[in-house]
Each structure stands twice: as structure tokens, then as C-alpha cells.
What we know:
Blueprint: E1 5-11, E2 17-23, E3 26-31, E4 34-38, H1 43-55, E5 63-67, H2 73-81, E6 87-91, H3 95-102, H4 106-109, E7 118-121, H5 125-130, E8 136-141, H6 156-159, H7 161-170, E9 171-181, H8 186-195, E10 198-207, E11 210-220
Parallel strand pairs: 5-6, 5-8, 6-7, 8-9
Antiparallel strand pairs: 1-2, 2-3, 3-4, 9-11, 10-11
Amino acid sequence: MKPRELLGTAIVPGGEELRLYRRDGDFMIVLGGNELMSSRMSGSEEALALMTCERLHGRAAPHLLIGGYGMGFTLRAALGALGPKARITVAELVPEILDWARGPMAALTANGLDDPRVSLIVDDVAYAIRARSKSYDAILLDIDNGPEGLTRAENDRLYSAGGLAAAKAALKPGGILAIWSAGPDTSFTRRLRHVGFKVEEDEVRARAGKGARHVIWFATA
Length: 221
């Protein structure tokens, strides 16, 4: 097996160092000893977008907020599922991730970042949530490793009762908060319900029909 090639590093504000590696045609973003994401395993990130879009019931001009660009799989899937009148705001905290998307990982983006339906915010998605009231048809969060985060302590506020209440206030009536996680969390499911969401919890695979089992919560306001 060929060794990994280090392509770049980035410091997560308030957190640790991310490293971008390439091995042959595969890319990996790594934090310490944890592989946060890999281009080999995009299934659950795509499902986050596709399953959310299905639940929007054909809204003609939905506005989605995606928190965490990652490797762009969620954005690319959403763009493919939505019509020309849709709007997608992407909030990414680490600017180097967007540089990597336009640089060594450009083939993965399918020019999604330049789609006229897309606007970018280089900031914490929590600010994009709190700055808007009843504005989004859906908020998709793929931040950290889910409610039990790894990269920065500040991410916990997104998944606290206060953070979930802010997300609910930012959604239009019947809007959807969709949250990706590396694994289940029964206390988090209870927290969503306590805030007033109607909650569905789905298990999805990291790859088509195989790979690790991830969890997506679909919480309807």
C-alpha cells in the first residue's frame, strides 16, 4: 500500500489541527488519530441531503442551510436533487477546507461551490442560525462527529437545548433540522423532542449498502 501524501494542514478555530492526505485517488481529512472523512465513504453524507430533500415535499423554492462543507458530498447531492429556484447557504468555519475543495479536491466538488444557487459563509454555522428567524426550509448539520464532538468544544452549543431551540426558531413552519452523527445517542433524541421537534431517526451506511452505520436525525419544527 502506498503511503499517504500530506497535502495541507489547517487549525480549527478553538480546536486542533486538521490534515488533508491523499493516497492514490482517495482523500482523507484527519484529526489526531481519527479519520473524520474520506472520499471513499460518501454514502451517509449524500443521504443527509437526499433524505432531507425528499421530506421537503416538493417546495418550489426551498432555502437550505448546510453547516460544514466537508468534502462537498452533501452539497453536491442537494444541488442534484433541487430545482433552479432553490437556494443553499453553506457555512464552513475553516477556510482552508474551501481552499482544498477548489484545489486538490476540485474533482469532487463538481463545481458546486460556483453554482449560482449557492452562497458561502466562512464562519460558525451557529451564527448563521441565530441571525435568521423562520428563514430556512431545512438546516443540515454535519459538524464534528455529531452531538459527541471531537474537533472543538464550541460545537457542543449547537447540540445543546439552547442551540436546538435556536435552530427551531430559524426554520420555517414545518422545516427540517437534519443532523448527521457517527453513531446513535438516545439522550440527544430526547433533547430534540424536549425542544419541541417531531423526530425521526434513520440508520444509513457509509457506503452504498455497506460500511459503517451512521445515524441521521430528521427533526421537524
